[in-house]
């Protein structure tokens, strides 16, 4: 069973409770009149058991309809940061007040984990985003989410959900302001050495991972398919092995 929203769940549950109350009154009436007391009591009990089972399934379905975006992270182990960086978008009073923010406080991270649970899906608005929120560890962004505070939407790895701005504003006094530093290099070796150096900095939250950390420059090639081969580019793995 899938429920579309909380209101539907409440309505269904109210109907079930009404049926339960009505059935209970019938059992009491049978007792008062003395007609088929045991038979109807047995039927009533079976009905109540079935109803409790349905109600349990109803709550299970509703619970599974929730999306907890930080569920897979064990923040208690430490070493995690939650970083909110500003993106180009329209004016937001909350974003203007919060600016860029982060937290590595385990208690606050677990509060985010509990509060950032979503059930109501949202359309894909063409609004842009005020924040990119990164889960960071060892200087890397291991997962990111995008939030628009005016359109009330959060983009996650499994879809778009309605985002109540209170889910962020409630943390305003618990968040810290990160320090961003930009460096320019004309020598790729110096740039690589700098990235290597800051990787051991205990104050580091996030560092870039540009392609030039492993590769220098660009290259391209043209591969000509054999005349007797159809759709030769469909099996690129084999082609790469042949060229190695």
Descriptive report:
With 244 residues, the chain is an alpha+beta fold. The chain has a six-stranded antiparallel sheet with strand order 3-2-5-6-7-8. Strands 1-4 form a two-stranded antiparallel sheet. 39% of the residues lie in helices and 16% in strands. The longest helix is centred in the N-terminal third of the chain and has 28 residues, at 6-33.
Which secondary structure elements does this structure contain, and how are they paired or packed?
Elements: H1 6-33, H2 37-64, E1 67-68, E2 80-86, H3 93-98, E3 101-103, H4 106-115, E4 117-118, E5 131-137, E6 140-148, E7 153-156, E8 159-162, H5 166-169, H6 188-198, H7 236-243
Helix pairs in contact: 1-2
Kindly provide the radius of gyration, computed on alpha-carbon positions and rounded to a whole number of angstroms.
Answer: 29 Å
Count of extended strands: 8
- Helix count, per DSSP? 7
Helix content: 25-40%
What's the rounded overall pLDDT mean? 74
């Amino acid at each position: 069973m899938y429920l579309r929203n909380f209101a539907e769940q409440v309505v269904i549950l109210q109907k079930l409770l009404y049926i339960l109350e009505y059935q209970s009154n019938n059992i009491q009436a049978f007792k008062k009149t003395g007609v088929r007391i045991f038979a109807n009591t047995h039927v009533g009990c079976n009905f109540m058991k079935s109803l409790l089972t349905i109600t349990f399934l109803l709550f299970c379905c509703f619970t599974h309809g929730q999306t907890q975006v930080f569920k897979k992270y064990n923040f208690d182990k430490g070493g995690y940061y939650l970083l909110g960086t500003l993106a180009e978008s329209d004016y937001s009073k909350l974003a203007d007040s919060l600016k860029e923010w982060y937290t590595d406080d385990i208690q606050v991270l677990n509060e985010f984990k509990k509060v950032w649970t979503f059930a109501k899906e949202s359309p894909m608005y063409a609004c842009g985003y005020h924040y990119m929120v990164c889960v960071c560890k060892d200087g890397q962004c291991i997962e990111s989410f995008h939030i628009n505070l005016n359109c009330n939407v959060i983009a996650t790895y499994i879809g778009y959900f309605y985002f109540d701005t209170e889910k962020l504003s409630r943390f305003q006094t618990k968040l810290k302001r990160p320090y961003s530093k930009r460096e320019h290099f004309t020598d790729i070796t110096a740039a690589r050495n700098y990235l290597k150096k800051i990787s051991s900095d205990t104050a580091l939250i996030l560092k870039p991972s540009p392609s030039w950390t492993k590769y220098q420059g660009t290259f391209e090639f043209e591969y000509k398919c054999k005349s007797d081969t159809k759709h030769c580019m469909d099996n690129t793995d084999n082609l790469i092995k042949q060229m190695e």
